[in-house]
Amino acid sequence: MFKTVSQTRIMYRKSPLSDGSRSGPIHAGDRFPWFQWDDANSYDWLTNTGYVVLRFGGAEPCEIPGWKGPLTQIAVDGSAAEAALAAGLPRHGCVVVRPDMHVAQVYR
């Protein structure tokens, strides 16, 4: 019942806002996964306004074509990167998260 009421099962894989990219079980259009490590969690990254680009494995900063709004780039490493990998995110590449906490694109 919680997943229905909280709308955490909503996904936009077939939406024009999603480009079809994926990393394992994570597809563009899916809600960004919640996971934790040490004394932090993945939603801590999503507190800024606008799009968030998570960079894994030393990936270079990514640009979002056509986006003119706020953009936060975060390099993910250490125990956070290991927890992200276990949650299905890539070992190397970028994941772009929309302001509504859904994955917009996965670059590998």
Description:
By secondary structure, the protein is α+β, with helices and mostly antiparallel strands. Helix content is 13%, strand content 28%. The protein is built from two helices and eight strands; from the N terminus they run H-E-E-E-E-E-E-H-E-E. It has helices spanning 2-6, 78-86, and strands spanning 22-23, 26-27, 36-37, 40-41, 51-56, 71-76, 93-97, 103-107. The chain has a four-stranded mixed β-sheet with strand order 6-5-7-8. Strands 1-2 form a two-stranded antiparallel ribbon. Strands 3-4 form a two-stranded antiparallel sheet. The model is unreliable at 1-6 (pLDDT under 50).
Short overview:
By secondary structure, this protein is of the alpha+beta class. It contains two helices and eight strands; from the N terminus they run αββββββαββ.
Distance between the termini: 35 Å
Share of helical residues: 10-25%
DSSP E strands, number: 8
Question: Main β-sheet, in a few words?
Answer: 4 strands, mixed
Distinct helical segment count: 2
Structural class: alpha+beta
Low confidence ranges: 1-6
Shape: globular
Q: How are the strands of the largest sheet arranged? A: 6-5-7-8
Order of helices and strands: HEEEEEEHEE
Overall pLDDT level: 84
- The fraction of residues in strands falls at 25-35%
- The radius of gyration is 13 Å
